[in-house]
Amino acid sequence: MTGILLALAAALIWGMGNVWVRLALQGMRPTTVSVFSLFIGLLLLFPLALILHWDDVTGITGGVMLTIFFYGMANFLTGRFLNYSSISRIGLNRAIPIVASSPIFALILAVIFLDESVNAFIILGTLVVMAGVLMIVTERR
User: Whole-prediction pTM value?
Assistant: First the structure.
């Protein structure tokens, strides 16, 4: 139950964050908002990571650091910029549900690269998400 409450709290905070991003995009470009949000996150989280998890931070191996680097470039830099650009161009109500289709891509990549298995419920859920995204993308204004 605690995990579900934490996930719902994360969803609420991400939802609020997207509204704040939309407000910020009224006065700035997506590039500026992306870089500024990344910088603030680094300022807040890096010292906290050092204080709370010193052994983990100082024990990171080269391979793990490379993986974290590519994750940071793909997710936090490129993904955030593309997300903010889509919000700026098509609005929050259309962009966020499309971006939220990321589990579809995670599922496909997990099956290909991690040899994870799928079942009927996962396939059904994926089809429902795809149908919802299709409805949003093809919506007539």
Answer: 0.77
